[in-house]
Amino acid sequence: MGCWERNPHGAGFAVATGKHVYIRKGFMTWDEFAAIDFDGLEDHACVFHFRFATHGSVSPGNCHPFPIVGNLKRTSATVDVAVAHNGVILGQQTSKKDYSDTMCYVENVIAPYWKRCKGKGKMYTSAKRRANPLAETGSKWSFLYGDGTIVNIGDGIECDGVWYSNAGFRTYTAPNPVVLRYPEEMLRPLPMAGYF
After folding, report:
1. Does a structural domain hold residue 73?
2. Exposure pattern of 58-82 as b/e (b: 16+ CB <10 Å)?
3. Do you find a cis peptide bond into 65, omega within 30 degrees of 0?
4. pLDDT at 77 over 90
5. What domain count does the chain have?
6. Among 118, 111, 114, 36, which residue's Cα sits nearest to residue 75?
7. What is the pLDDT of residues 79-90, one digit of tens each?
8. Given this model, what pLDDT does residue 83 score?
9. 104: in domain
């Protein structure tokens, strides 16, 4: 539930079936998301995304992951590849109302390369080439292919076989507080000696 508390603007996931990727997104409350039966997913490559909105409205269609081509706002789809993103992409323009920065980048940059080099090996290279400049600015990307291949780009954290785009999954416990005790004379203000 920690992912939801830090990223409360919707959730989604993608699952590789061996041939295609199944996307479900638009879960706008924790209860909606928690009600999904995830039994059996441990045998499949998956990408989960919890959204913190920076561009575009808080709405089911703006949740991640997205298909590379087609209607990016679909909340349920079977596609060849899905993508999720963490970060902010400045300067993205679209003629479509209420698109997020990620949706604009997928539509304007990644999709054209996918269409040109649908051969799988070329797509891995093209997707990496197009997303890598953004990774250098702190963005993280996860591409999930139907055969279960996951291509993660950016400085994520791998823990127990799971790649996280940030450290928000970790539970932080503060150490016992340290109480510093100073002699009373150290607490008195010092006289101003002048400016240097």
Report:
1. yes
2. ebebbbbbbbbbeebbbbebebbbb
3. yes
4. yes
5. 1
6. 36
7. 989 999 888 777
8. 92
9. yes
CA–centroid distance for 10 within its chain: 12
Of 24-38, 100-114, 172-186, the least confident: 172-186
Give the distance from CA 54 to its chain's centroid. 12
Print the domain residue range for 88.
2-187
Nearest to 67 by CA among 53, 77, 57, 55: 77
Inter-residue contact 23 to 79 (CB < 8 Å): yes
Are 110 and 142 a contacting pair, CB within 8 Å?
A: no
pTM of the model as a whole:
0.78
Token pair recorded at residue 151: 């291509």
Q: Is residue 193 part of a domain?
A: no
Whether residue 77 lies inside any domain: the answer is yes
Structure tokens belonging to residue 64: 């991640």
**Distant-in-sequence contacts of 93-96, Cβ < 8 A, 24+ apart:** none
Instruction: Please check the confidence at residue 110 and state whether its pLDDT lies above 60.
Output: yes
Q: Would you state the structure tokens that stand for residue 12, as one six-digit string?
A: 């989604």
- Helix/strand/coil (H, E, C) string of 88-140? CCCCCCCCCCCCCHHHHHHHHHHHHHHHHCCCHHHHHHHHHHHHHHHHCCCCE
